[in-house]
Structure formats: C-alpha cells, structure tokens
Amino acid sequence: MLWPVLFTLQAVCTSVSHAMQHYPAAWGHYDVCKSQIYTEEGLAWDYMACQPEATDMTKYLRVALDPPNITCGDPPETYCALENPYMCNNECDAATEELAHPPELMFDFEGRNPTTFWQSSSWKKYPKPLQVNITLSWNKTIELTDDIVLTFESGRPEQMVLEKSLDYGRTWTPYQFYATDCLDAFTMEPKTANDLTQRTLLDIICTEDYSRGYVWKNDKTVRFEIKDRFALFAGPRLHNMASLYGQLDTTKNLRDFFTITDLRIKLLKPATGATMVDENNLSRYFYAISDIKVQGRCKCNLHANSCVFDKGKLGCECEHNTTGPDCSRCKRHYHGRAWSVGSYLPIPKGTANICIPSNHGPVHRANASSLGVANRNQARVCDNAMLRCQNGGSCHHHQRCHCSPGFTGVLCERARCQGPGECDDQLSGRASLHHPPIRRRLALTLVVLPLLIVSLC
Fold it and tell me: Reduced to 3 DSSP states, what percent helix, strand and coil does the chain have, rounded to the nearest 5?
C-alpha cells in the first residue's frame, strides 16, 4: 500500500535535491532577533544574532557629481554615435523633459522604452581629460551582498576607478581599477576576480574585462564582483555559507571590506572605439549611464532585523537593548558589561551578545537562553487575558502559575503523575481520546513518512 507513496516521495526528494544544488539553503538569514521559549522556570527570551534582509540600496542614496555642471543639456548639445560618426541625431536639452538626462535617471525603473539615462557633456575640451566623479552616499554604514553593476548607455569607459569610503566621504580607498590597458593606465598587471584566492581576496586589482572598445547592448555592464569573492569561502554556488559567516566573524578586515558608507565612481577616460580620437567630431565622446545596482543591507552589528528610512535617513530598529543608527552602543541603564557586536556563530542562530542591565550581578554568556532567563522578570509568564493559568491555577505577579493539586507545567497545562500507571495521555485534566485502529494507522503513517522522506533524501 505504501510503495506507490514511497516511489512518489523518492521522486520528490530527487527533484528537491536537484533544486538545492542551485540555490543556497534558506537557513542563515538571521532574520529573527529573539523568541520566547519555555524553560523549567517559565517563559523566557532566547536571543539570536539578526540582520535586515538585503534590498536595493539605490532607493536610499544621494548622488553628487563633480564637476557639478558636467551633465549635458546646458547649453543644448547634439551627440554622434561612437560607432557611426555620421549618425548625429541624439540631442540633450536640460530645459526639455523628454531630452534631459539628469543624474536621477541612473536609478529609475529600467523597464521603459526608450531607456532613460544620465549623460555627461561631450569631450569639448580635448586633449584636457574628460573626468567625472559620481558619488553615492547613504549617510549610513551598509553591507554589500551582491555585485555592484553599472550599465552604460554609451561605450564603457576606457579608464575608471571604483572607490569606497567607510567614514562618510572623508577618506577614500580604491575598490577596483578598470582599463583597456592596466599597465599603461595604472602601472598594474591585469587580473580578474577569478585570479583571487582566499589569501588575496582583499587585494585591489585592475581588470581589463569591462573596458575594451565599443560593445554591443548586452555587454555594456561594468561589475565589481562581490559574489565571486564570497564564493572563495562559500563555494561556487554559495552553498557553504557557514564557512563565509565564520570568516566574517573572525576576520575584521574581511567584514570591513564589504562595508561602506559611500561609493565613488571615477570616470577618467571615455570610450573612443579603440581608435585615435577624432578631434573634428568630439561630440562622439561622452559618458552615459542608464542603471546602477547596489544590493546590500543596513549594518546593524547583528542587533536588528529591520532598517527604516525616515526623514531622508536610514536607521536600524535596534534590539538586544542596543541603540544608535548602527546599534553600536548599549541603551541607558544597560551597561552591565561592555557593548559587543553580535556573532554569526554558532550556526544557525549565532550569538546575540545582548546588553544587560547595569548592576545586574554575574555576567552570563550572551547567546544562550540563560540570558533570557536572567531577564525573565521583564516578560509575562501568565496573566488573566492571553496567558491564563489552566485547570484552576492562579497567576502570581505575572511570573508564575500556582497550580491546583494534580497539575503542573508553566501554565498548569499538564496532569501530574500521582503514582504508577499511565498519565501521559492526560492534557489539561482530560484524558485524551483513544484513536480507533484506522486512526492509529494514520497517526503512525504521519510519524513514519517524515522519517522516510529524510532517509530517502
């Protein structure tokens, strides 16, 4: 009778296993900061490391251009196509909405046709370099979770640098160099992200993969490969996230490498089509960007699972008795020990490292439910509304149920065994219903089937 079911389960397991080969497991999201658990002493909080979900961070940034007047359209200008110097029908006019190309068009929805994009003025001052700095600022520390992707409407630049700041734009360090000739442009040997190893992951490289000549529409992207770097620890399909989390926990430089407050795109030389610059038609040379993707999350030091955008500013909704934009300090009256960042380990809940009340007494280890027990006086075990003591029990100061004779449990929900004999079937003072034979077989099947699924998978 069960064999058809078993064959069906085996087929399901095979398809599930195949699917899991292509997608990371769902665990390890760290999306819950605390949960209530039952202990021998009552309800208690179990605290866990937590972080906000990754999202599109371009919705929350401010963009600045240097020089400020580098955007095309003032005065109006006509542009020629790089691949065809005689096709000069692209007009930019800042005073006409349909012909304007302001910076915010780098971050709008790209499902429309024609494509919207920001565009610089042309290389009118050649041979003086046409250089533009595009600065993206969040006024908040964020952690990158996916590749940074720039999509160019023009040809990709022949020389470019991507830079990051960790101190709100006061100082800058390079993330990656891009050039058609790395040796000539930056005196660096060309490399790719695939050349990196675990030991060299933090190295700053120059790549030629995204800068060669004019390219077709589907090759107009420039990337900074976050996931390729993650894969050095988590495997090519990011299956072994435990390894990555372990490295992020124990290697501060690694965590800081993927953390930013600002990004800066330094455009140093526009695409020229791998030919000499045509000084008689400089309207062929310019920068145009249709889309920028930055995927990440607010950095909350593993003390919050949500981040809000209020009055133009991002901020973590802190848990674990922490406070501040990044949950980077303990709340008032919770300085029983020094603040500490949460930990991804042990998998899958991590260690919360909560702040504990001042003058609290002995310091408990941060992760375990012992901290929840230590703070149990702040949580209601029982009341006269939702958490009623059962079977005639009475609630004492919201902290403990005084049970009637013959009953036990946090809410007096279990019958107490008075002597030899069966009492396991009793719940809330009532004997459980005895299943007829067919129900027993069904119950047995429901118990056995999950075990079969596990063994088959």
Answer: 20, 25, 55
Cis peptide before 348 (omega within 30 of 0): yes
How does pLDDT run across 167-183, given as a tens digit for each residue?
Answer: 999 999 999 999 999 99
Q: What is the separation of C-alpha 228 from the centre of its chain, rounded to a whole number of angstroms?
A: 16
The band of 401, judged by pLDDT with boundaries at 50, 70 and 90, is confident
Tell me whether the omega of the peptide bond preceding residue 103 falls within 30 degrees of 0, making it cis. Answer: no
Which one-letter amino acid corresponds to residue 450?
P
Partners of 79 in the beta sheet?
Answer: 90
CB contact at 8 A, 332 and 346:
no
Give the integer Cα–Cα distance in Å for 234 and 243: 6
Q: What is the DSSP string of 228-283?
A: HHHHHHHTTTT--HHHHHHHHHH-HHHHHHTEEEEEEEEEEE---TTS---TT-GG
Kindly report, residue by residue over 90-103, the tens digit of the pLDDT.
899 999 999 999 99
User: How many Cβ atoms sit within 10 Å of the Cβ of residue 2?
Assistant: 11
Note the pLDDT of residue 114.
Answer: 72
Q: Is the CB of residue 60 less than 8 Å from the CB of residue 79?
A: no
Q: Residue 178 and residue 86: Cα distance in Å, rounded?
A: 29
**How far is Cα 229 from Cα 241, in angstroms, rounded to an integer?**
12
As a dihedral over the C-alpha atoms of residue 158, residue 164, residue 169, residue 172, rounded to 10 degrees, the angle is -80
Residues in contact with 246: Cβ distance below 8 Å, sequence separation at least 6, in sequence order: 233, 344, 345
Instruction: Pinpoint the alpha helices (H) of 101-218.
Output: 182-186
List C-alpha distances in Å: 213 to 155, 158, 220, 291, 302.
Answer: 7, 7, 11, 20, 44
Q: Give 93-128 as a DSSP string.
A: -TTSGGG---GGGGSS-TTSSSPP-EEB---TTTTS
CA distance 61 to 313: 9
Location of structure tokens 């390219």: 215
| Beta carbons within 8 Å of 114's beta carbon, 6+ residues apart | none
Q: What percent of the chain has pLDDT over 90?
A: 56
Other Cβ atoms less than 10 A from the Cβ of 4: the count is 8
According to DSSP, the residues that pair with 47 across neighbouring strands are 34
Q: Which of 172-176, 272-276, 371-375, 409-413 has the highest mean pLDDT?
A: 172-176
Q: Are 132 and 66 in contact (CB under 8 A)?
A: yes
Task: Name residue, tokens 């003591």.
Answer: 389
Q: Contact, 79 vs 90, CB < 8 A?
A: yes
